[in-house]
Amino acid sequence: MKTDDNAAVHNARRTKEFFQENNITLLDHPACSLDLNPIENIWGWMAREVYKNGHQFQTVDALRETIFNTWSNVTTSLLETLASSMPKRLFEVINKNGGATFLESFFLTL
Hints:
It holds the Pfam family DDE_3. By secondary structure, the chain is mainly alpha-helical. 54% of the residues lie in helices and 4% in strands. It folds into two domains: 1-31, no CATH class; 33-110, no CATH class. It has helices at 13-21, 39-50, 60-72, 76-84, 86-95, 102-107; strands at residues 2-3, 26-27. A two-stranded parallel sheet has the order 1-2.
């Protein structure tokens, strides 16, 4: 079984043929759906943390170090919150027939 976000780059004819020839079931969901990609919430959280209080970086190395430090501070609690939100996310996406839900903006504020 495979899932992808149904974006155009994932829908090449040869790719579809490969999955069909190998009896791989595809699970579709809306293209580029923030609701179904919790990692997008992590990236948003990280960007806010890295640039907190308007922080500017003088070197790429300083930026890189801050990014790595921020990544290492992603808490288990945050990951659990995102993981446990999946049933609600799926429910909301189904209710919106694949459209955007209020969850996109809600979870961007983590």
